[in-house]
Write a structure and sequence with these properties.
Strand content: 35-45%
CATH architecture: Beta Barrel
Largest sheet: 15 strands, antiparallel
CATH class: Mainly Beta
Number of domains: 1
Shape: elongated
Order of helices and strands: HHHEHHHEEEEHEEEHEEEHEEEEEEEEEE
Helix content: 10-25%
Structural class: alpha+beta
Number of helices: 9
CATH topology: Porin
Distance between the termini: 61 Å
Radius of gyration: 29 Å
């Protein structure tokens, strides 16, 4: 029992220590990155990382003719969790339950002694056994309620994304067409607790007792509590290479229309793992190996399209990510447990039982769904100042099945001064899924170093999250 609780705590701590994600429109697959953490899908020429949003935005980033490139990063890291505020209290409650030695309450010799002085020894023995087993099952029922509540409200996610060095590369030709080359690596993982009832085992002989004399042959040395309660983890890692093109297609005295498109080449590795918390042995695959491995890679191409109408003091944009909606296959959990031993066999058999109940699929497929995003901004002519907002028209699910639909608003000020930093603040809300409200802020030091953060305080469902992104680019 103590082994069960120890693994239970380790599983939760591992999940909370390595887990969160945000999927953001046509941006990086798992989370906003760089200044987009604050600015959303609005393309600002002073924030190079926003070129990863609307494919037409690269045109705004380019110089009159020639190259513009990044340097290092940005790199973004995020964590998100649900129901973690009072997790210690609930674990303490479980500890109090599991501290009880269930088998010690089944004292055969004591029952025999009491039965000798009872008017009807046989009836007394049957009633006493029923009472002892009922007390144990009541304690197990109490534990089931706590575990079920943890399973329903608690999750943990992590995400990290890094842009390739010296990327993106943006080149404007003499004919004013703009080509963009970009690459990134992303990783996202999630851990959940799947609840299963605690069951008292090894008491069949005791339950079959009908008389005092039957106690002489009863053996309860193997009495124990078993459960399939597990930690269920999913992981997705993506190596993405992008090639984009944007061009001004019309221009008047007051505005210009820019269109763009981008092809994204994905090498996506998707996997899932289940670990039974009551299993004494360790799995042959460690948690770190699971999250960092790239077994069973699926390849695919996604297409993003966008347009921007920009004027002296305004900017309007619209984009559609993943127009063709490519699909990728999970490695999947083992469906045949033959040949497995120890913890691997236990986890495999438990996975089959959970899959049979419809908790998850053994062979899952991820569709990179299309999502439309619109944005608008009031800005100064040089885009040093802007008040902007963006909105995802429809919700999509990320590779781990969590839904996202972002609405953002931001206020930013960039400067030509090397002393005064560029500043931006904002607010973003996920309208579905976790429904988290993030408060965002960022600074650009020396017109090169971008630092952006986001924090979501705990909401009514107990969900909260935090993100940080750091990047260093050449002067804008």
């Amino acid at each position: 029992m103590r082994k069960y609780l120890t693994i239970f705590n380790l599983g939760l701590m591992l999940g909370l220590g390595v887990s969160s994600s945000v999927a953001m429109a046509s941006m990086y697959v798992y989370q906003p990155i760089g200044s987009s953490t604050v600015l959303g899908s609005y393309g600002n020429r002073h924030a190079l990382s926003t070129a990863a949003g609307n494919p037409a935005a690269s045109y705004l980033m380019a110089n009159l003719q020639g190259f513009r490139v990044g340097f290092l990063g940005p790199i973004g890291i995020g964590i998100e969790g649900g129901g973690v505020d009072d997790i210690n209290d609930r674990v303490d409650e479980l500890e109090a339950i599991f501290d009880e030695d269930f088998t010690s309450s089944i004292d055969i010799d004591a029952i025999k002694t009491e039965a000798q002085s009872a008017p009807d020894p046989d009836a007394f023995v049957v009633a006493k056994i029923d009472e002892v087993l009922a007390d144990i099952n009541d304690s197990l029922d109490s534990a089931d309620v706590v575990i079920s509540d943890i399973s329903r409200t608690t999750y943990a996610k992590f995400s990290t994304t890094v842009q390739g060095p010296f990327l993106p590369i943006i080149y404007k030709t003499r004919r004013r067409g703009v080509f963009t080359l970009d690459a990134s690596a992303s990783l996202v993982g999630r851990a959940d607790v799947l609840a299963d009832n605690l069951t008292l085992t090894g008491v069949d002989e005791l339950e079959a007792v009908t008389s005092a004399s039957d106690l002489d042959t009863v053996n309860v040395d193997d009495a124990d509590v078993e459960s399939d309660t597990s930690v269920y983890m999913k992981r997705a890692s993506d190596l993405r290479f992008s090639l984009g093109y944007s061009e001004m297609v019309s221009r008047s005295e007051t505005s210009a229309l820019i269109v763009g498109g981008r092809l994204n080449f994905h090498r996506l590795a998707l996997d899932q793992k289940l670990t039974v918390l009551s299993e004494d042995d360790d799995s042959s695959v460690s948690y770190s190996d699971f999250f960092l491995s790239r077994d069973s890679v699926s390849s695919g191409i996604s297409l993003d399209l966008g347009l921007i109408l920009t004027g002296r003091n305004f900017q309007l944009g619209a984009s559609i990510a993943n127009v063709n909606e490519p699909e990728f296959d999970y490695k999947g959990l083992v469906s045949n447990c033959s040949g497995l031993t120890g913890a691997d066999k236990t986890s495999c058999e438990t996975a089959l039982r959970f899959a049979g109940k419809g908790v998850f699929s053994l062979n899952e497929t991820y569709k990179m769904e299309a999502q439309m995003t619109v944005d608008a901004a009031v800005k100064s002519k040089d885009q040093h100042f802007s008040l902007a907002g963006s909105y995802d028209v429809n919700a999509i699910a990320d590779p781990l099945g969590d839904e996202y639909q972002w609405a953002t608003v931001s206020l930013s000020y960039y400067t030509d001064s090397w002393v005064l930093p560029g500043m931006r603040i904002g607010y973003r809300k996920n309208l579905v899924g976790s429904e988290l409200n993030y408060y965002t802020a960022g600074l650009t030091f020396y017109r090169r170093l971008d630092v952006d953060v986001a924090y979501a305080p705990e909401n009514d469902d107990g969900n909260s999250g935090a993100y940080v992104s750091v990047g260093y680019s050449f002067v804008y």
